[in-house]
Design brief:
Chain lengths: ~270, ~260
């Protein structure tokens, strides 16, 4: 739960109804509707330019839709003012596609940004930054600047910044985009760790099908401190998929529904 | 590059004016409610005010020098060389001090603001700030606007002073005028209306420089090329605005004070 101690509602964490947005006569999203329940991890798949990042920014209120309804924690955000939106965003952590770290600040100040804004005592903030960095296994990089980090390390700092206040919802915008397979697996392991340890609701965009299926077929073992396949070829029930193509949802369901889909476009996409 | 249709051009221009007005209104209203980032304001005061000190002093000093040198030639023809101090003082205080300082600060800081905020925009740092619950208008725009307005006021006073001093040095050491009489005439030439006019301008110019710089920075699109374009536009637009607003304020104050 987020640090402001607002209780999570019993209903869906996210509820989108008929959401549409157009940029310069180009319809990016067209009547998008879906629901994300508490504790669920929803993986957003689809070809590049399909509107996935736009959808994520809409959910965090960074842009407003032309039409439709977006409810986050049961509250309609399309009619909220920017000030009201800041309150809502305190319960949401977001990992940006290119990390979006503040390049004039070191890792500690980047991760502690929200804590510093909320007036947390420096000793307490430092302790929590260290915990968050240890979670992403980057405890030694605390004094470094973003320019001194590799792409994968930046992504991990971005994850630490998103989870430091223990948000109720985490939005991962292509956390493995542009990374090599080994680093991608490390990032996916962190997402799985966050899912299985904190049970936080999450929405994750992925360009790599392999990462998405690793997320569905693996669990995090806290004793061994590593990600392991779920026994008996089972899948994580709380990990579901959403496929966007040309601004429309063409699939919304579980892992097995996706792999057994008869839709020719989905079959072609998966292959 | 295809030509934009007239209707598209008008729509884009109207939207730009609307966005600029909203940014100005939000920056001003943010001044009257918490949180106010005092640390950032002082940081910007140092960067904008103290950082612009050398160029402002140099520009003001040599403008005063050249003003005395050029005007003395013409005044001598009418036997009015003793009026040099009066001319330098009025020109510096009412026009050249505020306008030149404004243009100098615009060249240095409107570009700096546009490029800094533009880089943050294209690397999603501004979106990240919003996602972390911080209003970029309060955190980035308000400190720059308040620091520029406050510091430009004092930079202009300094520029006026060194301009008059520069004119004095030229008058005494190159034109052979009496120093006491020069400074006496500079002081006596100024009346209340002149000082009000000269002190009013930097407040408007500071607001123009910072809001235009921040507006172009915050609305940057298209990667590094977009940052370069925003930087150029910020300097060009703020410089033109300064000159246009200078005329309007001059006309207004002449209407009020009669000079």
């Amino acid at each position: 739960m987020a640090d402001d101690q607002t209780p999570a509602p019993a209903g869906p964490v996210l509820e989108l109804k008929d959401v549409s947005i157009t940029f310069e006569r180009n319809k990016v999203l067209d009547g998008v509707s879906f629901v994300v329940q508490p504790g669920e991890t929803r993986v957003l798949l689809g070809p590049a330019g399909g509107g996935k990042s736009v959808l994520m920014k809409l959910i965090n209120g960074l842009i407003k839709p032309d039409g439709g309804s977006i409810k986050v924690f049961g509250e309609e955000i399309t009619t909220m003012s920017e000030e009201q939106m800041f309150q809502m965003r305190r319960r949401v952590g977001m990992v940006f596609q290119e990390s979006a770290l503040f390049d004039s600040m070191d890792v500690e100040d980047n991760v502690a940004y929200r804590l510093n804004e909320e007036g947390t005592a420096p000793e307490e903030a430092h302790k929590r930054v260290q915990e968050a960095l240890d979670f992403v296994e980057l405890g030694k990089a605390i004094t470094k600047f973003p320019s001194e980090l590799s792409g994968g390390m930046r992504r991990r700092v971005s994850i630490a910044r998103a989870i430091i206040t223990k948000p109720d919802l985490i939005l991962y915008d292509s956390p493995t985009g542009g990374l090599d397979p080994i680093t991608s697996t490390t990032i996916v392991q962190l997402v799985v760790k966050q899912r299985d340890i904190s049970h936080t609701t999450a929405l994750m965009i992925s360009h790599r099908l392999q990462d998405a299926f690793v997320l569905a077929t693996h669990r995090f073992d806290p004793e061994k401190n590593e990600m392991l396949p779920i026994p008996d070829n089972k899948v994580d029930e709380n990990t579901k998929f959403l496929i966007l193509n040309e601004g429309k949802i063409i699939f919304d369901g579980g892992t097995l529904d996706l792999t057994h889909s008869d839709d020719p476009w989905i079959q072609s996409y998966l292959s | 590059m295809p030509f934009a249709s007239p209707s598209e051009f008008v729509k884009t221009s109207v939207v730009a004016v609307q966005d600029y007005s909203i940014l100005c209104a939000r920056a001003v209203s943010a001044l009257f409610s918490p949180p106010i980032y005092l640390g950032d304001i002082f940081l910007q005061m140092d960067a904008i005010g103290f950082g612009s000190l050398p160029i402002t002093i140099l520009a003001g000093f040599f403008t005063g020098c050249v003003l005395a040198l050029q005007s003395a030639t013409s005044l001598q023809e009418f036997g009015a060389i003793s009026m040099t101090g009066r001319l330098v003082s009025l020109s510096m205080m009412k026009e050249l001090g505020p306008v030149l300082t404004g243009l100098m600060v615009s060249g240095r800081n409107a570009s700096g603001m546009a490029s800094e905020l533009g880089s943050m925009k294209v690397t999603e740092q501004i979106d990240a700030m919003r996602a972390l619950g911080v209003d970029p208008i309060r955190k980035l725009v308000l400190p720059r606007v308040s620091a520029t307005v406050f510091m430009l006021f004092f930079l202009t006073i300094l520029s006026d002073a060194v301009g008059v001093a520069g004119g004095g040095l030229v008058s005494v050491f190159m034109l052979g005028l009496n120093g006491t009489s020069y400074f006496h005439s500079t002081y006596r030439a100024l009346v209340y209306g002149d000082v009000v006019q000269g002190m009013m301008k930097p407040i408007f110019f500071g607001f123009i420089i910072s809001t235009v710089g921040c507006y172009f920075g915050m609305s940057t699109k298209g990667g590094t090329q977009g940052v370069g374009k925003a930087t150029t536009q910020a300097v060009v637009v703020s410089s033109v605005f300064i000159i246009v607003v200078d005329f309007l304020i001059s006309r207004l104050t002449i209407g009020i004070f009669g000079r």
